[in-house]
Amino acid sequence: MSSVAVALQNIRKNIPHGVALVCVSKFHPAEAVQEAYNCGERLFGESRVQELTAKAERLPKDIQWHFIGHLQSNKIKYIAPFVSMIHGVDSYKLLVEINKAAQKVGRTIDCLLQIHIAQEETKFGFSAHEVKEMLQQGEWKSLAHVRLCGLMGMATFTDNQLQVAEEFTRLTSLFNEVKALHFANQAHFAHRSIGMSDDYGVAIQKGSTMVRIGSSIFGTRA
Ligand SMILES: *Cc1c(COP(=O)(O)O)cnc(C)c1O
Q1: What H or E segment, with its residue span, contains residue 44?
Q2: How much is the pTM?
């Protein structure tokens, strides 16, 4: 068995039914994606537009590509025709731009709103206050070509598991709050995209429905 296959077998044991696994293949070659595909994986995550489009062209068409990085408005058009979900929507303006690009290609794109839960200043995302205000304001409801499917977040880069747990818990509570207020009857608003190689166990305990795992599957990135 290949190392990717062995890693996937171990990781799959820890992921309960109902939690989706996004295999984060960024910086790894198309061959590595194909190996994971051959093990049955269909959800793959990339964080750079050019890398994503190059891989999508070469690889099987039934792969669902998730864009998980910071997306620049001028690059949306390259992924709009095929991307399955965009995780890192961190401003209303970006949502409007995704809507426009999706309309042009006759699609509706599933999106997650990125919430800033970490201590670091550098991580992108809405604050809890900002996202509540944006949803309350209601203008987003007129964007017919994007579908809000939940929230995404990244914990602080730290060994302190208690802090990470607290940050994930905050994201899940925020999800529950906005779900009740704005998406109570919308089954598709269902996702908490939290958890990476080092913290997906905690994330699952704290309500993750989607983990994004890279290095534990494909090895360290160059
Ligand atoms: C790279 C990346 C991951 C995967 O990180 P690993 O630690 O390699 O599992 C998950 N989410 C985002 C947003 C990433 O950029």
Answers
A1: strand 43-46
A2: 0.97
